[in-house]
Design brief:
The complex is a heterodimer.
Chain A: H1 5-14, H2 21-38, H3 70-74, E1 80-81, E2 84-85
Antiparallel strand pairs in A: 1-2
Helix pairs in contact in A: 1-2
Chain B: H1 9-17, H2 23-36, E1 42-45, H3 47-57, E2 70-74, H4 101-108, E3 112-117, H5 151-158, E4 164-168, H6 175-181, E5 184-187, E6 208-212, H7 215-225, E7 254-258, H8 268-283, E8 287-291, H9 299-314, H10 333-344, H11 347-360, H12 364-389, E9 392-396, H13 412-418, H14 423-428, E10 432-439, E11 445-451, H15 457-470
Parallel strand pairs in B: 2-3, 2-4, 7-8, 7-9
Antiparallel strand pairs in B: 1-3, 4-6, 5-6, 5-10, 9-11, 10-11
Helix pairs in contact in B: 2-3, 9-11, 9-12
The chains are: A mainly alpha, B alpha/beta.
């Protein structure tokens, strides 16, 4: 199974990954192989309730706050200004 | 050079208590060995801090078994102030602001962290080759893969660079490299060990586990790192002593061996060794019977869907904004995201998160993801049915011994099929251990996998130690 160029571009866009032209050709084949594998899930005969987590723990809220100090968190940010993380403009003028 | 790191931790502990050696002797030996080694087992060494801590410990009483013992940590477990890269360019400069819960426990026991071990990038791979920092080599034969993704942790223990290591297992990543490098590796019950501070790959499958030379040490290390943690809501409240049945007889035990594990995909050299073990167990009063576990043959495809879906969601956080790599080539926010992720992630990771994003998108979520979750439940029930009649399940950990480096590089599919015997356990959340039981004619290790029902690691350790002590083929 080989994916079309359009399919690969669509998949890359979903994952927010930019591909070069030669990469698109490569991924047509490698992603195609993976999809052929994954498609087999549809053919399994059987029904059950969905199992999201293998433990029996009930859904619950965290009972204690677990925050790190601002300074520590900001240390790894590529761009900061004062006590904030600096980001690209999201809205146009 | 001294050679204390080949001793058991109980022997080292005695030497420390009797003041025959100091923690610094162990630390110096570890770094000497690592610096001489060309196995590429470590990404970051913690030399300065390790030496400092060892000196501090000289003035303190030896108050527990792990006091002053060197340990290596897989580089996807965060360590405060010590680089944690997940073997990715994306996190090459990431300096965590906090310690994972397992690290906190390790530090409280006054163990000495020697360094962060090499691994497949973001734990995605089963050969150790997808690391941004280059492949890890197998100490038994440097032209062979050590297995993955916890490649460096396995090799560090196997080559006696450290006595103990910590790995993580999403679809076999502790057990498979343990099998291929001849050490003991345990994936505990999902929830046994807190995942707080483990860089998430597939959250419903991920579990941290101990990697050691012997079964007893494995159980001892699990004693240390397991337990309820309010920071991981899936963690379970238990305080078992995992060593309590070590040394007990196994007579009367009932063990199942799934026919799936002994089919055509299993290499003859592995099959022969498993048959020897079965014979040995029968001679020691154990009932061993072949069983069929419905749906287990679909594990590989369920794993692909669930692991990749969850990975794409977990790795969405790597956007170049708060931490990690940031591309310097962009004009707008979308360009920033796309270029950062394209340049920061390696090929294997990109493949997996692309497929993962696709199978979670719109109607595909029903078609693939929820479908897989339904069958996942059936696999869990299949296992439970077996454990109504049997104490344990055994089988090979891998289909074959270690193969040549580079042979299947960039072959995602081969990687998944390498894990065909180990992924079912993660889907069902069960504990399983890989035990070294012998070697092939060309001196490559073979691992036996022992699986129990949830929360019954104690019985796994009982059988594993019995085989370790009494089965001669393993020596």
């Amino acid at each position: 199974m080989k994916l079309s160029e359009e399919q690969v571009k669509h998949i890359a866009k979903l994952a927010k990954i930019k591909l070069k032209d030669n990469e698109i050709t490569m991924y047509q084949v490698t992603l195609g192989k993976l999809m052929a594998e994954i498609d087999q899930v549809e053919d399994i005969v059987g029904e059950g309730d969905i199992l999201i987590s293998p433990t029996n723990n009930d859904n619950q809220w965290f009972t204690e706050a677990n925050f790190q100090p601002n300074e520590a968190l900001l240390e790894n940010a590529p761009h900061t200004k004062g006590n904030y993380i600096e980001v690209e403009r999201v809205l146009n003028d | 050079m001294t050679n204390y790191l080949t001793l058991s931790i109980e022997e080292i502990n005695k030497l420390l208590i009797n003041q025959k050696i100091k923690p610094i002797d162990l630390v110096n030996e570890a770094f000497e060995k690592i610096e001489k080694s060309d196995l590429n087992a470590f990404i970051t060494l913690n030399k300065e801090e390790a030496v400092k801590l060892a000196k501090e410990l000289e003035n303190q009483p030896v108050d527990n078994l792990f006091f002053g013992i060197p340990i290596a940590i897989k580089d996807n477990i965060v360590t405060k102030g010590l680089l944690t890269t997940a073997a990715s360019k994306m996190l090459a400069d990431f300096n965590p602001p906090y310690d994972a819960t397992v690290i906190k426990k390790i530090k409280e026991a006054k163990m000495i962290i020697i360094g962060k071990t090499n691994m497949d990038e973001f734990a995605m791979g089963s050969t150790g080759e997808t690391s941004y920092y280059g492949p890890t080599l197998n100490p038994y034969n440097k032209s062979k893969i050590p297995g993955g993704s916890s490649s460096g942790s396995a090799v560090a223990v196997s080559a006696n660079l450290v006595p103990l290591a910590i790995g993580s297992d999403t679809g076999g990543s502790v057990r498979q490299p343990s099998a291929l490098t001849g050490i003991v590796g345990m994936k505990p019950t999902y929830g046994r060990v807190s995942r707080y501070g483990l860089i998430a790959f597939a959250s419903s499958l991920d579990q941290i586990g101990p990697m050691t030379k012997t079964v007893t040490e494995n159980a001892q290390l699990l004693n240390l790192i397991s337990g309820k943690d309010t920071k991981d809501l899936n963690s379970i409240n238990t305080n078992d002593d995992f060593t309590k049945k070590i040394g007990c007889d196994i007579k009367g035990m009932k063990i199942a061996i799934p026919d799936f594990y002994m089919g055509d995909v299993t290499a003859p050299v592995i099959k022969e060794k498993i048959l020897e073990i079965i014979e040995f167990l029968k001679n020691n009063g154990v009932v061993v019977e072949s069983v069929k576990i419905p749906f287990i043959e679909h594990s590989i495809h369920l794993y692909q869907v669930i692991a990749l879906g969850e990975a794409s969601s977990n790795l969405a956080r790597f956007d170049g904004i708060r931490y990690g790599y940031l591309s310097d080539n962009y004009n707008d926010l979308n360009g920033l995201y796309e270029n950062t992720r394209s340049e920061g992630f390696g090929d294997e990771v990109k493949r997996r998160i692309m497929i993962g994003s696709y199978i979670l998108s719109s109607e595909n979520a029903d078609k693939y993801y929820y479908r897989a979750l339904k069958i996942r439940n059936l696999i869990k029930k299949s296992f439970e049915n077996i454990f109504n009649n049997y104490d344990l399940i055994i089988g090979p950990t891998t289909t074959d011994v270690a193969y040549d480096l580079g042979l299947f590089q960039n072959d995602t599919i081969k990687g998944f099929y390498d894990d065909i015997f180990v992924t079912p356990v993660n889907l069902a959340g069960l504990p399983a251990l890989s035990l070294p039981v012998g070697k092939s004619l060309d001196n490559l290790p073979i691992g036996l996998q022992i699986i129990s029902k949830a929360m019954d690691e104690v019985t796994i350790y009982q059988l594993a130690s019995y085989i370790e002590q009494n089965f001669n083929g393993g020596k």
